[in-house]
Sequence to fold (120 residues):
Amino acid sequence: MLALARGANPGLVFLVGLLVWLLNHPYQGIWHDARVYSLLAAHWLDPEAYSGDLFFSFGSQGELSLFTPLFGELTGWLGLSRAAWWVVLGGGISWIGACLALARTMLGTGYAARFAVLLG
Fold:
């Protein structure tokens, strides 16, 4: 952490920020909204199996999103549990990257920007 305070490069700030994010957001499995996205992925993989389901009878949000086909294909390759884990990890990496870019744009490269990334 001392190197982080002395003028570390953005890569180190990113990795420490990701570590802090991972420690504060442990993966809890498929629950809450992930159940809906899992159902949309299953429908994407096998539409005939869910053709009579009321949720899909009148159309669903999965038809309007790029996430459903991407998550459906990832689920087909890796299985539901591993695909969901990779999506959560990708979201965390994207969040820390966005925090880093925003902090560097608004605060420069000083201590305040590094602190903002770790706080985010």
Q: What stands out?
A: Helices lie at 2-5, 10-24, 33-45, 54-57, 67-78, 80-107, 111-119. The chain has a mean pLDDT of 85.
